[in-house]
Amino acid sequence: MNTPARLGAYVLGLAVVFAGAFGVGGAVGATGPAPAKNGHGGHATPSPAAQKTEHVPGGLQVSQNGYTLTPQTTTITPGTETGFRFTVNGPDGRPVTAYETRHDKKLHLIVVSRDATVFRHLHPELSGEGIWSVPLTLPDAGAYRIFADFAPQGGEGLTLGADLYAAGDYAPRPLPAPSRTVTVDGYTVRLDGTLTPGAASRLTAEISRDGKPVTDLQPYLGAYGHLVALRVGDLAYLHVHPDGAPGDGVTPAGPGITFYAEVPSGGDYRLFLDFQHDGTVHTAAFTVRVEQPSGAVPTATADHGADHSHSGH
Ligand SMILES: [Cu+2]
Fold this sequence. Notes:
The chain is mainly beta. The chain is built from 2 helices and 19 strands. The strands form 4 sheets. A 5-stranded antiparallel β-sheet has the order 1-2-4-8-7, with no helix packed on it. Strands 3-10-9-5-6 form a 5-stranded mixed β-sheet, with no helix packed on it. Strands 11, 12, 13, 14 and 17 form a 5-stranded antiparallel β-sheet that branches. It is globular, with a radius of gyration of 20 Å. The model is unreliable at 1-53 and 300-313 (pLDDT under 50). The structure holds copper (II) ion. Residues 105, 108, 121, 123, 221 line the site of copper (II) ion.
């Protein structure tokens, strides 16, 4: 958390999370709308723009690059604490037991309701056999998505997603209206910045309490803030960390936390910001509408056409 290299990794992570499954090995290409392998005389190095169009955002797949998220529990009772267990099975089929530590933890577990209103950010315990477990209580019946954000030892970071169900009568909630200011636990958090599809976009969260800027935020997971962004509709997962880190001599402990985020498309997003103050972690949830630039082809795919729906090609 206190080295330039680590900071670099954060920034690099932005590029990897949404811009690039290309960072995690060639196998990923097969999951996207990849160009025909035999065609075009074997492009050894497709342009970065072309790569961008092929990647699949994190969290949409239960299995990727040989790693599979395997919940041992898929249905729970709402309002009741459940010992939620899962494994990540590696290419050999066995539970992975060795992980890289990233952002202070070996694995980050995010649980979100399908309507993107309920959010949990948990850090399960790992047994020697590779079984992760964590107490989990979900408030309401319905469908949930779990995300395991991790890197196997020596490997690249992955976010795998799986479904989880809380039994009972389900009452879906409408998406909260877009808002740049939210209040949580007596704190007011304002979010500034414009998310632009396909580009690293600067976001700033400013935290105040009782009308006064909070300037003594506490480090949480090696940062002053921790932001998860999910695309509404498919819960594509974007894990973003701030620009700067506690103790680097330049990053203030509030009131502003700066992030760089890259979203893959226009649409609605839910952003969940964790921050720690006075020993407690708080989560501010925003709905952000991202405009697709008018007339813009998402990336440099004009030659092949992003929507050649009926053309015979
Ligand atoms: Cu975490």
